[in-house]
Amino acid sequence: MPVKTTPANASQAPKAVATCPVERAIHVIGGKWKLLVLRSLLLNGPQGYNQLLLSVAGISSKELTRNLAELTACGLTERDPLTADRITPYHLTESGKALMPTFESLLLWGQRALPLDHASRNAHSGALTAEQQDPKIGSDELA
Prior knowledge:
Structural class: mainly alpha
Radius of gyration: 16 Å
Strand order of the largest sheet: 1-2
CATH superfamily of the largest domain: Winged helix-like DNA-binding domain superfamily/Winged helix DNA-binding domain
Distance between the termini: 26 Å
Order of helices and strands: HHHHHEEHHH
Largest sheet: 2 strands, antiparallel
Shape: globular
Number of helices: 8
Strand content: under 5%
CATH architecture of the largest domain: Orthogonal Bundle
Helix content: 40-55%
Mean pLDDT: 80
């Protein structure tokens, strides 16, 4: 499923973005908060606004609202508009779920290029439980 280009995000993109798929993708998912929101939804499944606010360490309410609106406008996340309140869960669309291999590649690159020492790994707040870990990935963290 292709990512939607809305008038809001299309007008912000430089003209060169229109011709390069990598630049278009970075424009859609780039930035610290979008990636962390997507990671939380990939790892934890559907979550309400308040759950996401707690699961994405350090994000402000304003930033979460803005990032969820952008991810929804691009077709990566959605929620039932008829019951949209703070507990109505956001979930990934098929297009959003298709980002899992990208996150797995980031995980593997991070493990090789940016290794954590044992103490830092244990203290890291985003560690996965054994149930959350993908057997293809192994026993290391995506968080």
